[in-house]
Amino acid sequence: MFRRSSRPRLTVAATASTYLASLLAVTVAVPATGRQEATAEPLVGPPSDDLPTTSANPATAAMARIQLARADAAPWAPGKAPGASVDCQKVKCVALTFDDGPAPGTTTVLDVLDQYGVPATFYVLGSRVDRYPDIIQRIADEGHEIGNHSHAHRDLASLSTTDVVESLESTNASVVAAIGEEPPTMRPPYGSHDATVDSVAGAPIVLWDVDTLDWKHKDPSETLRIVKEQTGPGSIILMHDIHDATVAAVAPVVQHLVDEGYVLVTISDLLESQEPQNGHQYSHLSVHLDGDGNSPHLAAG
Ligand code: NI
């Protein structure tokens, strides 16, 4: 089964109130045109007129709203609640994914994501979950998604069926022990899987369509260049939070995506319209295109 997070998303601790995302809207000040009603996805947190100046770029405006909501309404899941309401067939979505952690540098990645108020998905190794349970807890607490990247990063296609099952199930168990939920998707190390792996995966198999090769060149500017060159609506971007150079690339990458009008979402939110099946492979969201190769739904950006 493909399951979505059941974590509460909209509780505002300061007032002990709960806000319904579907009923919320705020006003955004736009320099060129004065005030205008913020549109698109609902907002978490109390409505306010006291928003910072922002540009007319909808994504930038959305970011300002998100950041304001966070300031007023901690704690809530950054990005998760806005993302949960996004229809990725209608807006430009992209999913950032970080593999092979958690590692000490993951906390810096989380800090950056928190500053931007955007979610990501972390494909974690069971062996490292056991070592860094606090980081796993923080990933979940801050509204990000956790995926299963096996226990010890062996090539699953080279293992016996029993060993594949053991590697995936022990990782699921480690994540459950840390946060109380199983990862909704899995990603095989090296993207390597075969019919045996597919049959016992027990979750949708999530690969990527933008490979930053960050582990190889260890150059933040090269990571950014590849993201700029290869990302499109529905893309899944592969990075590795165990490398310092990748940690350094997160802010420029997120800034670029936001500037280009992308809405960052978790893998579950990205693929929701696809109704992903266990053992099936997904490398991006297929956005429905018209005859000219453009999406009739996607806003220019
Ligand atoms: Ni990996």
Describe the structure.
By secondary structure, the chain is an alpha/beta fold. The protein has helices at 58-72, 80-84, 106-116, 126-131, 133-141, 161-179, 195-200, 214-217, 220-230, 244-259, 267-271, and strands at 11-12, 17-18, 27-30, 34-37, 93-99, 121-124, 145-148, 205-206, 210-211, 235-240, 263-264, 281-282. Helix 3 (106-116) packs parallel to helix 10 (244-259) and helix 9 (220-230) runs parallel beside helix 10. It is globular and about 45 Å long. The relative contact order is 0.16. Residues 1-83 have low confidence and may be disordered. The structure holds nickel (II) ion. Nickel (II) ion is lined by residues 99-100, 149, 153, 189.
List the helices and strands and how they pair.
Elements lengths: L10 E2 L4 E2 L8 E4 L3 E4 L20 H15 L7 H5 L8 E7 L6 H11 L4 E4 L1 H6 L1 H9 L3 E4 L12 H19 L15 H6 L4 E2 L3 E2 L2 H4 L2 H11 L4 E6 L3 H16 L3 E2 L2 H5 L9 E2 L19
Parallel strand pairs: 5-6, 5-10, 5-11, 6-7, 8-12, 9-10
Antiparallel strand pairs: 1-2, 3-4
Helix pairs in contact: 3-10, 9-10
Bound molecules: nickel (II) ion (NI).
The first-to-last residue Cα distance is 35 Å
Strand content bin: 5-15%
Series of H and E elements = EEEEHHEHEHHEHHEEHHEHEHE
| Bound ions, cofactors and other small molecules, one mention each | nickel (II) ion
The total count of strands amounts to: 12
pLDDT averaged residue by residue: 78
Shape estimate: globular
Radius of gyration: 19 Å
Characterize the main sheet: 6 strands, parallel
Count of discrete alpha- or pi-helical segments spanning 4 or more residues: 11
Helix content: 25-40%
